[in-house]
Write a structure and sequence with these properties.
The complex is a heterodimer of chains A (115) and B (114). Chain A is an all-beta fold. Chain A is built from no helices and 11 strands. Chain B contains no helices and 11 strands. In chain B, strands 2, 4, 5, 9, 10 and 11 form a 6-stranded mixed beta sheet that branches. Chain B has a 5-stranded antiparallel beta sheet with strand order 1-3-8-7-6, with no helix packed on it. In chain B, a hairpin with a 2-residue loop joins strand 6 and strand 7. Classes of the chains: A mainly beta (115), B mainly beta (114).
Chain lengths: 115, 114
């Protein structure tokens, strides 16, 4: 079974440019999450999709970040325009349902560097 | 404020030795506590999940404990191996729904040396 896959694995862009990160969750997982870790900090929640609907987007830092999950399959996270403080690792995760004992599977992350 | 604090920040042990990592949390409401292992440059991989009613859970050489009254957890690694070198992250779910959002600690960086 394929795990959570993310693309690109690494990206270097200039301040002001746009970057789009993609996440393919494990097949059949309705719940998809985006998290990120900026330098020296802990991993923090960005948002949660249930199928194509945004269940919780309380962690999105500002309106430069836009997440979509059209059709309830893969998701994209677009940063436009990128700022220096957006540099970090963006993790996508998925789970089958919201049961407390359910495993949440993480992807390998998309490493974003804004210069 | 929902927080997860881990100690020590880093740890070096000899191969074959045991170690215990600590986690204290102030997350409320509490649904479950998870330990993840994260190798350098990789994504976190789940080790254990404990709900409110569970106070111990094992996964091979990894044993996690949970005291929901004192809001403390520990991860004990037995007979460490070189491949155990990684960051170990304590993660708490602060939601009645069970899974989201997760509150992460900063992790303990474990180095196992020969």
């Amino acid at each position: 079974e394929a795990g959570v896959t993310q693309f690109p694995s690494h990206s270097v862009i200039e301040k002001g440019q746009t970057v789009t990160l993609r996440c393919d969750p494990i097949s059949g997982h309705d719940n998809l999450y985006w998290y990120r870790r900026v330098m020296g900090k802990e991993i923090k929640f960005l948002l949660h999709f249930v199928k194509e609907s945004k269940q919780d987007e309380s962690g999105m830092p500002n309106n430069r970040f836009l997440a979509e999950r059209t059709g309830g399959t893969y998701s994209t996270l677009k940063v436009q325009p990128a700022e220096l403080e957006d540099s970090g690792v963006y993790f996508c995760a998925s789970s089958q349902d919201l049961w407390a004992g359910n495993t949440i599977y993480f992807g390998e992350g998309s490493w974003l560097t804004v210069v | 404020k929902n927080q997860v604090e881990q100690s020590p920040q880093s740890l070096i042990i000899l191969e074959g030795k045991n170690c215990t990592l600590q986690c204290n949390y102030t997350v409320s409401p509490f649904s479950n506590l998870r330990w993840y292992k994260q190798d350098t440059g990789r994504g976190p991989v789940s080790l254990t999940i404990m709900t409110f009613s569970e106070n111990t859970k094992s996964n091979g050489r990894y044993t996690a404990t949970l005291d929901a009254d004192t809001k403390q957890s520990s991860l004990h690694i037995t007979a460490s191996q070189l491949s155990d070198s990684a960051s170990y992250i304590c993660v708490v779910s602060g939601s009645y729904s069970g899974n989201t959002p997760l509150v992460f600690g900063k992790g303990t960086r474990l180095s196992v040396i020969a």
